[in-house]
C-alpha cells in the first residue's frame, strides 16, 4: 500500500485530533517519548538504526541513488535528526510542517531495483512511501531508541514501555503510517521486529554494504567512529546482519564493547543535565516556560540539527534566523 496524499492527510488529522498538551506539541513533557528522546544517549544507537534501515533493499536502493548523501553526510545527519526531534519536541504546526516535507521527499523516491536482493527481483519497483517500508523505518527508530536509552539510563518499566509504544503509534502518523498497520502493544511490536530480522525482507545488498563501509571507515565522514562505538553497534545487531555488513566483531571488539557498557553509564551520569539532554528538548522546555531559547541551547542545536532553532512551521527544513535571548 502506497501512502497517497489523502492517506497522509487522514493520518495527520488523527494525530491532530488528540487533546492539546503543554507546549502545543504532538506529545508533551509528561510523555514517555519526551523522557526517552531528550537523552543524548540515543546517539549510541544511530549506527544500529542506520544499518537496520539499509538492510531493507528498498531503503538502500533509494539512498544509493542520492549522490549528495556522501557529498554532505553531516547535512544528512542534521536533516534526519532535525525531522525526528521537531516531530517529537516541536509545536504541532512545526511537526506537521516537517512531516509534510518528509512525505513529499519520500514521494520522489520511486525507482526500480538495480539488482535482485532477497525477495525483490531486479527491475521491480521500489517506493519510499510504501506502508511496509515506512513501518520498518519507524520500527528501527523506536526499538533502537529504547535499546540505547537502556544502555545509559534505568530501563523503563512495563507500564512505561506500553505508554511509550502508544505514543510511538501517534508519532507514526506523522510518517503517514495508519494506526491499524501497527502492532497493538509492545510485545507484538517486538514480535514484529524479530520476525523482520529473521526474514529475507532484510537482505544486505551490495549497495547497503558499500554505504555502511563508507560511513564506518570514515570515508564518507572524514573521520571514522571510535572502535568502541563500532563494537557496540555490531553487538546490537543480529548476527546474520552483522556478518552481512562485514562489521568486525572479534574478541578485541567484544572486550571493547563490554568496557564501553561499564564506563559509558558512569561518565554519562556525571554529565550536567544541559549536556545530557538534546538541544531541541531544551528549546521546547524554554518555549513551555515562555522564555527565549538560551544561547547554549542554540549552540547544542547546531550540533544536533545543524541550526540554532527547530525549523519554523512555515519554513520546515530551511535555516531559521537566530533568536536572541
Number of extended strands: 2
Shape: globular
Give the distance, in angstroms, between the N- and C-terminal Cα atoms.
47 Å
Radius of gyration: 19 Å
Let me know the average pLDDT.
91
Instruction: List the total number of helices.
Output: 17
Biggest sheet layout: 2 strands, antiparallel
Helical content (DSSP H or I, runs of 4+) = 55-70%
Unreliable stretches: 316-325
Provide the succession of SSEs.
HHHHHHHEEHHHHHHHHHH
Beta-strand content estimate: under 5%
Alpha-beta content class: mainly alpha
Record the strand order, biggest sheet: 1-2
Explain what the structure shows.
The chain is mostly helical and 325 residues long. It contains 17 helices and two strands. The chain has helices at residues 5-16, 32-37, 46-54, 57-64, 68-71, 73-89, 92-107, 131-152, 158-173, 186-198, 206-217, 227-235, 239-244, 251-270, 273-276, 279-289, 295-305, and strands spanning 110-112, 125-127. The protein has a two-stranded antiparallel sheet with strand order 1-2. Helix 3 packs antiparallel against helix 8 (131-152), helix 8 (131-152) crosses helix 10 and helix 12 packs across helix 14 (251-270). It is globular and about 55 Å long. The N and C termini lie far apart (47 Å).
What would the keywords be for this entry?
mainly alpha, disordered C terminus, 60% helix, 325 residues, two-stranded antiparallel sheet
